[in-house]
Amino acid sequence: MTECIEVRSTASSRGEAARICAAVVAHRLAACAQVVAPISSTYWWAGEVQQAEEWLVLMKTTVDRFDDLAACVRELHSYEVPEIVAVPIVQGMPDYLEWIRRETAPERGE
């Protein structure tokens, strides 16, 4: 059985986050995508501590779809090095997890 994951990314604007969500769902790379915003991020970049307002994007998919989803996010992203990380969904309602698997199955794609 294919393992379900949540892929996280941040975007520089609400519009960029919305474009990422629309693309990954339209291409069936994620069963759903959500935007949480705004968030305040503090991070190292170019040798300095930076602070920025960002939009958090949460995408539900499977391990098998991660590489294609990451490529799609990277293509649409404005950052030189975008955050694209996956965390396992270790438990969930069986019907919800099956829905993720079904909606992201490659044969359902374009």
Q: Helical percent range?
A: 25-40%
Number of helices: 3
Over the alpha carbons, how many angstroms does the gyration radius reach?
14 Å
Strand content: 35-45%
Number of separate domains: 1
Number of strands: 4
CATH architecture: 2-Layer Sandwich
Q: Give the strand order of the largest sheet, numbering strands 1, 2, ... along the chain.
A: 2-3-1-4
Structural class: alpha+beta
**Which segments are poorly predicted (pLDDT under 50) over 5 or more consecutive residues?**
none
- Average residue pLDDT: 95
CATH level-3 fold name: Alpha-Beta Plaits
Task: Tell me about this structure.
The protein has a four-stranded antiparallel beta sheet with strand order 2-3-1-4. The mean pLDDT is 95. The protein has one domain: 2-Layer Sandwich (Alpha-Beta Plaits), CATH 3.30.70.120. The chain is an alpha+beta fold and 110 residues long.
Concise summary:
This protein has three helices and four strands. The chain has 110 residues and is of the alpha+beta class.
Task: Name the features.
110 residues, alpha+beta, Alpha-Beta Plaits, 4 strands, elongated
Protein topology:
Elements: E1 4-11, H1 14-26, E2 32-45, E3 48-62, H2 66-76, E4 85-88, H3 94-103
Antiparallel strand pairs: 1-3, 1-4, 2-3
